[in-house]
Amino acid sequence: MLRFITYFLLLLLITGAVFGQATRPPTDRPSYGGKLKPEQANMDVLHYTIDVALDIPDKSISGYTIIRCNLLAPATALLFDLMDSFKVEKLLVNDKPAAFTHEHHELHITAPQPWPAGLVTVRVQYAGHPMIAKRPPWDDGFTFTTDSTGHPWVAVTAEGTGGKIFFPAKDHPSDEPDEGVDLTITVPKGLVVAGPGLLAGIKTKGDRSSYHWKTNYPINNYSIVFNVGDYTVVTRTYTTIEGHKVPMQFYVLKEHADKGPYQLELLERFAHVKEKYFGEYPWAKEKIGIVETPHLGMEHQTMNAYGNKFRYTQIGGQDFDGLMNHEFGHEWWGNKVTAGDWADYWIHEGIGTFGDALYTRDMEGEAAYEKIFQHYVPRIRNDKPIVLGKDITEDDAYHPDIYPKGAFFIHTIRYILGDSIFFPAIKRIATDSNHTYIHSASTAEVEQTFEQASGMDLSPLFHLYLYTTDKLEIRVRPADPTHYLVQLLNIDMSLPLEITTDAGTKRTMVDKKGITVTSTTMPFIDTRDFYLKKVIYDL
Question: pTM for this one?
Answer without folding.
Answer: 0.94
